[in-house]
């Protein structure tokens, strides 16, 4: 606290100096300078420009350890949501070919997948989006600078080009939206030298081949899922639990499905070292946490998906005293996205405790721009954020996990309605639907307000959005039941669910 | 004694399948129904005195609505029977939603197969076997029939096989295969069937089939002609065309789905043409003739701009599937409901109030036979609500028919709930209606050479911009709609949509990011 006060005091003085400078030299170059041209930064800068603000956005991609680099748009467009969903789509088509045969399609010969064709198409699409973002900035009169930005003081940003040329920009407000980058493990020999991360996988020209994915986050599972789906031998190595923070029953269903789908899982194990054999293959040695025994196997690629680290190093935050969370390295933020330093704001993946999701960054960025332009006082509501994991069996959810609901309301305070259902599209191809499940966690008393809603199945992303709107409106269990179903869809099961977990009755849906 | 009486009743006109049963079995099944009472009427004034089986709840029609109502009533303790002349499950399971969606799924695979190479899969030679699909589809439908049968047995609901006809008894009573059944509460849930034109309207009309016949086709027609502009015509034309049949769709005006929002009507008409359906606008079938190379369908096309000009007459030859999808009509013939004082409208639909009461106390109707919102889930919900009202004393139990979501399994699918823009303007005035719309190419098509658009519209009313209608067509719209329909039923406003954080990357997120 004392430190904070001191910092504040110091800043007050500097601020005074700047007010003086401003009155001597006139206005700032810009009303707003945004560092980071990802989903959030772009949304924020375009929104501000729409309110007539003079805006500049700085974006610079530090190449990955493997040397991969990309254009404007940040993680989502280049090394996240977009290429990931397209490759997930490719994997779904891999499954569709198998289903198609059962649907009467006679396909001659084995079906092979060519990585280069897919990757090139995906990469071209991403490049077209990079271009689209530049055009949009131009249209909205936002100055785009392909420079690495860092803070000089609370109104000044220094931009550095690749060639080393410096530019100084002054701004009334500065927004940091530099996001994060995948981490490498620090203590595993060969990890960085021979390993890839999600920054590289989408930009490979050649198939990664037999792949070991280390980690159990949604990034790990999504990558392992699409690699399996396009026919690659894929193994996931998990130290403890999958999809930490998500409902664990659902997480189990997601990984069970993947296992049945062909993804191999090595559980309770940690990698020890990665070595390159003379054949070019990577030999990974790992140890079992429980027994300590060591195992080895060779892979063509090792993909580290062990978490993300915020991009704060080059920003010069410490110099200005911008408060960071010591553990995570993320910026500590107020509800209005303010940092500990006046006029400096931050949001998106770099913000402590913020969901690392594109739509929250976009929304938070737009709202921040509106507030900075004096057009609104509305704050971003980080509750009720729905999300979908695009694993081979998609998982969509909004609200609390069963564990969290139980923690907050007690086991007797919640009622869970659930159902195991069989998508009609699974019946003809005789696909196992054991993991197609939905769960509605409600308050037990009163109107049975919905606390959390979880759904695994085809199209979970498209199913979940509307329900998250209902959730936002305060839907109760009876609201679900009062809604007429749409037959035959998977989503209708959510309006038919009637078996409580407490009852112990079989939750399998039969008939229509 | 009892056995004799049954035999005496057998030669009645509506006797059908029961006759095939061994008499002993018939006898024992009759006897073993312990949950209902057998009453004897032997008043001197009634010479045709016969025994009438009495239930608490008698359901005519074993389709979605009837079965749902029966099972719920039984759960609530009512002795219940279901009368069905055909297969259990009704339209939905046998000749509707279920087999239709199986066919649609097969067609979706056809679309995927075109996209595979764009996604890196090497799928070159493929051929479609209708026979494989049909046998699997039939097997699945039979499986569902059995499930329904088991569900009824488990619920101790008696299934009576045959056609029901109301008798002239003072108390509402139906007769099936010569036997009489009564209950204080009788539910008519007989559904509907596809309409066909008469020979006098179109010579050769009976050479065509309907959606019922579509599900009997043993091979993929090479040349199909579908007549109609409703959702059934759209769905079947889409399926046939996508599976590789050369398909013509004959519509009387310039667009399909004319009672849908104009955005949907226009877009769906366009998508059909994009998919390769040969669309005949402003056209009607004049005659159909059988030749040794298939059917010859003669059509008259009128140019609406040139009122005085004569119709252009053209023929489509070598047609092996002419399908009428010109509407459906209620199954009431043979029920003898007129005599019961059950009122019907000019199209023969049974008129019911909001509680599903007909004009005759003790007789109710749900589902397609009422002609309102011809959808399985509507019939199911109405049947269940009625059961709760009748057997649980829930006086206010009724189905709210507002905001019923509907999906059309076209290519790509359509989702719609609430009012169309046109309806909203008509009821609230143009100044009170605000429209939000968007259209985009779904990300799935980012790397495919085949493209389809996604169009979306929100119809909002009043200052608070309450969302009263949501309409869309595009990939995934079938699964998108349900959740939105929950929220719209709750009275969601545009501000609620705006407050909702998107799920990225989906198509549905466009609804919560609309400006």
Question: Would you kindly provide a written description of the structure presented here, covering whatever features stand out?
Answer:
- The complex is a heterodimer of chains A (512) and B (515).
- Chain A is an alpha/beta fold.
- Chain A contains 16 helices and 25 strands.
- In chain A, strands 1, 2, 5, 6, 7, 8 and 19 form a 7-stranded mixed sheet that branches. Chain A has a 6-stranded antiparallel sheet with strand order 20-21-24-23-22-25, sandwiched between helices. Chain A has a 5-stranded parallel sheet with strand order 10-17-11-12-13.
- Mean pLDDT of chain A is 94; it is low at 1-8.
- Chain B is an alpha/beta fold and 515 residues long.
- Chain B has 14 helices and 26 strands.
- In chain B, strand 25 (454-461) and strand 26 form a beta hairpin.
- The chains are: A alpha/beta (512), B alpha/beta (515).
- At the A-B interface, helix 4, strand 3, strand 4, helix 5 and helix 11 of A face helix 5, strand 5, strand 6, helix 6 and helix 11 of B.
- Strand 4 (112-113) of chain A pairs antiparallel with strand 5 (121-122) of chain B, so a sheet runs across the interface.
Q: How do the helices and strands line up, and which of them pair or pack?
A:
The complex is a heterodimer of chains A (512) and B (515).
Chain A: H1 2-25, E1 30-35, H2 39-50, E2 55-58, H3 74-79, H4 81-102, E3 105-107, E4 112-113, H5 115-139, E5 142-145, E6 148-153, E7 156-160, E8 166-176, E9 180-182, H6 191-194, E10 195-197, H7 198-201, E11 211-214, H8 218-229, E12 234-238, H9 248-261, E13 264-267, E14 269-276, E15 282-288, E16 294-299, E17 301-304, E18 308-310, H10 317-320, E19 344-346, H11 358-372, E20 387-389, E21 395-399, H12 402-409, E22 414-420, H13 424-427, E23 437-443, E24 450-456, H14 460-472, H15 477-482, H16 493-496, E25 499-500
Parallel strand pairs in A: 1-2, 1-8, 2-5, 8-19, 10-17, 11-12, 11-17, 12-13
Antiparallel strand pairs in A: 6-7, 7-8, 9-18, 14-15, 15-16, 20-21, 21-24, 22-23, 22-25, 23-24
Chain B: H1 2-9, H2 23-32, E1 37-40, E2 51-54, E3 57-60, H3 64-75, E4 80-84, H4 90-95, H5 97-115, E5 121-122, E6 126-128, H6 130-154, E7 158-161, E8 164-166, E9 173-176, E10 179-182, E11 185-188, E12 192-194, H7 211-214, E13 223-227, H8 231-243, E14 246-250, H9 262-274, E15 278-280, E16 283-291, E17 294-301, E18 312-319, E19 321-324, E20 328-330, H10 337-340, E21 363-365, H11 376-391, E22 406-408, E23 414-418, H12 421-428, E24 433-440, E25 454-461, E26 466-473, H13 477-489, H14 494-499
Parallel strand pairs in B: 2-10, 3-4, 3-11, 4-7, 11-21, 13-14, 13-19, 14-15
Antiparallel strand pairs in B: 1-2, 8-9, 9-10, 12-20, 16-17, 17-18, 22-23, 23-26, 24-25, 25-26
Helix pairs in contact in B: 3-11, 5-6, 5-8
Subunit structure (chain B): Homodimer; disulfide-linked.
Disulfide bonds (chain B): 92-97
Family (chain B): Belongs to the class-I pyridine nucleotide-disulfide oxidoreductase family.
């Amino acid at each position: 606290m004392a430190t904070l006060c001191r910092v504040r005091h110091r800043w007050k003085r500097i601020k005074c100096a700047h007010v003086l400078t401003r009155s001597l030299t006139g206005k700032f170059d810009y009303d707003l300078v945004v560092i980071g041209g990802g989903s959030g930064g772009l949304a924020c800068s375009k929104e501000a420009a729409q309110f007539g603000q003079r805006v500049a956005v700085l974006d610079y991609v530090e190449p990955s350890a493997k040397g991969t680099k990309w254009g404007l748009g940040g993680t989502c467009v280049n090394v996240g949501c977009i290429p990931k969903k397209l490759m997930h789509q490719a994997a779904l088509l891999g499954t569709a070919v198998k289903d198609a045969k059962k649907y009467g399609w006679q396909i001659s010969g084995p079906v092979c997948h060519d990585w280069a064709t897919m990757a090139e198409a995906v990469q071209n699409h991403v490049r077209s989006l990079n271009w689209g973002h530049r055009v949009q900035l131009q249209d909205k009169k936002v100055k785009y600078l392909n420079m690495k930005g860092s803070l000089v003081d609370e109104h000044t940003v220094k931009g550095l080009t690749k060639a080393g040329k410096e530019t100084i920009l002054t701004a009334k407000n500065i927004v940091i939206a530099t996001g994060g980058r995948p981490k490498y493990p620090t203590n595993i020999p060969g990890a960085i030298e021979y390993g890839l991360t999600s920054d590289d996988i989408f930009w490979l020209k050649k198939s990664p081949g037999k792949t070991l994915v280390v980690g159990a986050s949604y990034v790990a599972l999504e990558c392992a899922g699409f690699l399996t789906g396009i026919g690659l031998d894929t193994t996931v190595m998990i130290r403890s639990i999958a999809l930490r923070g998500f409902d664990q029953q659902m997480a189990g269903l997601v990984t069970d499905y993947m296992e049945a789908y062909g993804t191999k899982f090595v559980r309770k194990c940690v990698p020890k070292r990665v070595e390159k054999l003379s054949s070019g293959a990577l030999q990974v040695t790992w140890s079992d946490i429980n027994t300590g025994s060591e195992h080895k196997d060779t892979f063509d690629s090792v993909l580290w998906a062990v978490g993300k680290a915020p991009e704060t190093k080059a920003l010069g935050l410490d110099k200005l005293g911008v408060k960071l969370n010591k553990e995570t390295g993320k910026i500590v933020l107020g509800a209005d996205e303010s940092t500990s330093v006046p006029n400096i704001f931050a949001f998106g993946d770099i913000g402590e405790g913020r969901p690392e999701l594109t739509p929250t960054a976009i929304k938070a960025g737009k709202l921040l721009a509106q507030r900075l332009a004096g057009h609104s006082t509305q704050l971003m509501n980080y509750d009720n954020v729905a999300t979908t994991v695009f694993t081979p069996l998609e998982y969509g959810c909004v609200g609390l996990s069963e564990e969290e609901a139980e923690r907050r309301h007690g086991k007797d305070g919640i009622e869970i309605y659930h159902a195991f259902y069989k998508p009609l599209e699974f019946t003809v191809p005789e696909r196992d639907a054991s993991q197609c499940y939905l769960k509605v966690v409600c308050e037990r008393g009163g109107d049975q307000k919905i606390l959390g809603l979880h759904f695994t199945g085809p199209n979970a992303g498209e199913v979940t959005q509307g329900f998250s709107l209902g959730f936002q409106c305060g839907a109760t269990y009876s609201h679900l039941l009062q809604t007429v179903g749409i037959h035959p869809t998977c989503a209708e099961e959510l309006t038919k669910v009637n078996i409580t977990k407490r009852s112990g009755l079989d939750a399998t849906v039969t008939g229509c | 004694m009892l056995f004799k009486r049954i035999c005496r009743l057998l030669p009645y006109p509506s006797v059908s399948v029961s006759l095939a049963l061994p008499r002993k079995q018939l006898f024992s099944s009759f006897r073993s129904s312990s949950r209902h009472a057998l009453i004897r009427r032997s008043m001197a004034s009634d010479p045709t005195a016969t025994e009438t089986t009495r239930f608490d709840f008698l359901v005519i029609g074993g389709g979605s609505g009837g079965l749902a109502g029966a099972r719920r009533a039984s759960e609530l303790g009512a002795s219940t029977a279901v009368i069905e002349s055909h297969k259990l499950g009704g339209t939905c399971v046998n000749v509707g939603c279920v087999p239709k969606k199986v066919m649609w799924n097969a067609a979706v695979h056809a679309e995927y197969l075109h996209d595979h190479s764009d996604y890196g899969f090497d799928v070159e030679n493929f051929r479609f076997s209708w026979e494989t699909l049909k046998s699997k589809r039939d097997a699945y439908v039979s499986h569902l029939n059995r499930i329904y049968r088991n569900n009824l047995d488990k619920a101790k609901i008696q299934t009576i096989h045959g056609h029901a006809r109301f008798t002239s008894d003072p108390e509402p009573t139906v007769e099936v295969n010569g036997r009489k059944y009564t209950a204080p509460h009788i539910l008519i849930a007989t559904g509907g069937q596809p309409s066909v034109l008469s020979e006098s309207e179109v010579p050769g009309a009976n050479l065509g089939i309907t959606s019922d016949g579509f599900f009997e086709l043993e091979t993929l027609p090479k040349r199909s002609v579908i007549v109609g502009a409703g959702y059934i015509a759209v769905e079947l034309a889409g399926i046939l065309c996508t599976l590789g049949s050369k398909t013509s769709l004959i519509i009387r005006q310039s667009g399909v789905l004319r009672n849908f929002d104009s955005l949907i009507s226009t877009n769906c008409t366009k998508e059909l043409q994009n998919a390769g359906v040969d669309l005949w606008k402003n056209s009607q079938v004049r005659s159909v003739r059988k030749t040794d190379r298939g059917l010859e369908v003669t059509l008259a096309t009128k140019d609406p701009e040139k009122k005085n000009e004569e119709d252009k007459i053209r023929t489509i030859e070598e047609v092996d599937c002419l399908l009428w999808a010109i509407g459906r009509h209620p199954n009431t013939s043979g029920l003898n409901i007129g005599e019961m004082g059950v009122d019907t409208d000019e199209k023969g639909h049974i008129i019911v109030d909001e509680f599903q009461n007909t004009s005759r106390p003790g007789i109710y109707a749900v589902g397609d036979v009422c002609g309102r919102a011809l959808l399985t889930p509507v019939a199911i919900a109405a049947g269940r609500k009625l059961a709760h009202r009748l057997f649980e004393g829930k006086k206010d139990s009724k189905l709210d028919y507002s905001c019923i979501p509907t999906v059309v399994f076209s290519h790509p699918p359509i989702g719609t709930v609430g009012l169309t823009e046109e309806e909203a303007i008509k009821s609230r005035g143009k100044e009170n209606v605000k429209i939000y719309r968007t259209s985009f190419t779904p990300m799935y098509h980012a790397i495919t050479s085949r493209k389809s658009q996604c169009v979306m519209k929100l119809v909002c009313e009043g200052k608070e911009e309450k969302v009263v209608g949501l309409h869309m067509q595009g990939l995934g719209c079938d699964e998108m709609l349900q959740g939105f329909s929950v929220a719209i039923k709750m009275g969601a406003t545009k501000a609620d949509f705006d407050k909702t954080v998107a799920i990225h990357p989906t198509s549905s997120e466009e609804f919560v990011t609309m400006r």
